[in-house]
Amino acid sequence: MVDDALLDDVGALLWEAADQIVVPLFRKLDAADVTEKAPGEIVTVADQRAEELISAGLRRLRPGSVVVGEEAVAEDRDLLRHLRGVGDVWLVDPVDGTSNFAAGRRPFALMAALLSEGEPVAAWVLDPLADTLAAARVGAGTVLDGRPVRTIETVPAPAELRGVAMTRFLPPAARDRVRAGGSRIGELLPGQHCAGREYLDILTGRQQFALFWRTLPWDHAPGALLVRAAGGVARRFDGTEYHPADDGHGLLVAANEQVWAEVRETLLGD
Prior knowledge:
By secondary structure, this protein is α+β, with helices and mostly antiparallel strands. The chain contains eight helices and 14 strands. The strands form three sheets. Strands 3-4-5-6-7-8-9 form a seven-stranded mixed β-sheet, with helices on both faces. Strands 11-10-12-14-13 form a five-stranded mixed β-sheet, with helices on both faces. Strands 1-2 form a two-stranded antiparallel sheet. Helix 1 runs antiparallel to helix 2 and helix 6 packs parallel to helix 7 (217-229).
């Protein structure tokens, strides 16, 4: 069971990690504080320390639960098996947008999601510099800074749509289709290198969609649930529903069903 008290407790835990670890280290990192955990993938001491604090706090909130954190998985990929497991499983991204954070740029976010018996049931995304926290639980909607929020219900014409397409990792054929279709979109944005912020911007109406190729679970499980609970859609390119345990590529998130279909046809239609 997920109640309002748990939503508040996890939100407070993310704020604690932000206030005590992440924000104080922003633009204060030394060269030794940033290392490469895989080719092209960096990690900072802020990621590591925040994940330790958040993971310990989540285990206190739900004794017996399992935490699958981005940095822990970098050390032990076998942890991913828990995403289809029984009981309570937490997904944690201690600093989403690490490349931004390490370079002294914003945005970055702290994110978490709770899976119960293999299904996402609650999610949190915190942008500490914007003083913005979104939380959701299945069946109870999404709250943004304590107030209920819904994604837009209108369907703008393609020339009025605004959204992001992360084309860097797309296969060449798909990249070419997206770029060609982008000429019919009102504003096709290059992305902020922080998935959490992209999801928050869909909630606030700043943009109506976001297209991704890589779908690491800690990057997308929290935001996908937030958007869905607020009335939006998060699906693979072929229309199947996104699940964080799926080892696949391609994700299109949109403010509503009709926007999803419009963007899918405009950017990915054969």
